[in-house]
Amino acid sequence: MALEHALLVSLSERPAAGLELARRFDRSIGFFWSATHQQIYRVLRRMEQDGWVTARVVEQSGRPEKREYSVTDAGRTALADWIATTTPRPAFRSEIAVKLRGASYGDRAALLADVAELLADHRTRLAHYESLAARDYPEPDRLDGADLDTYLVLRGGILQETFWIAWLTEYLDAHRTKDTA
Fold it and tell me: Taking the model in full, what pTM does it have?
């Protein structure tokens, strides 16, 4: 996936100025596709040159003017075409999985401490996702369209964090049991 597609999705949801888009990106799409603010601005300029987005200048009281971007017909077509293409099947690549497998050949105590930190990070992220779900989607059975799509992506994040928590907990518990036996 190119950053262009992630930005088209976000701008399809609501037009935005670059800074607002970068902030929104950090709070939503950024959970599963990361980009720096500089990358976002660079890609927005290229998308404007390609005719995928258009920008209008918005005057602001006491502040510099801003450029608010919105998706053009060409951008909607590009996004629809991309959505219709077959998604490449990602290979599972995990540095922590390789470390877990090789733990017997290194400093297991340091690795267990690292795993405990990762576990805490995943628990924090899960709590955040669950709070978003409770706040924004209290009745998921009533959702449809874009709201249902957004909710289901959030559910995917919840399930992914649940997986990581279960797996890392199992690893830590197995070694705690062995260490105390």
Answer: 0.77
The single residue listed with the structure tokens 């497998």 is 101
- One pLDDT digit (tens) per residue for the chain, 181 residues: 688 998 999 899 899 998 888 888 777 776 777 788 899 999 999 999 999 999 999 888 898 888 999 999 999 999 999 999 998 888 888 899 999 999 999 999 999 999 999 999 999 999 999 999 999 999 999 999 999 999 999 999 999 999 999 999 999 999 988 766 5
Centroid of chain to Cα 129: 11
How long, in residues, is the chain? 181
- The maximal CA–CA distance of the chain, rounded, in angstroms, is 69
Rg (C-alpha) for the chain, rounded Å, is 21
- List of E strands, 10-143: 16-17, 53-60, 63-71
Closest to 116 measured CA to CA, from 92, 96, 93, 94: 96
Contacts of 86 (CB under 8 A, 6+ apart): none
Q: Which residues contact 132 (CB under 8 A, 6 or more apart)?
A: 154
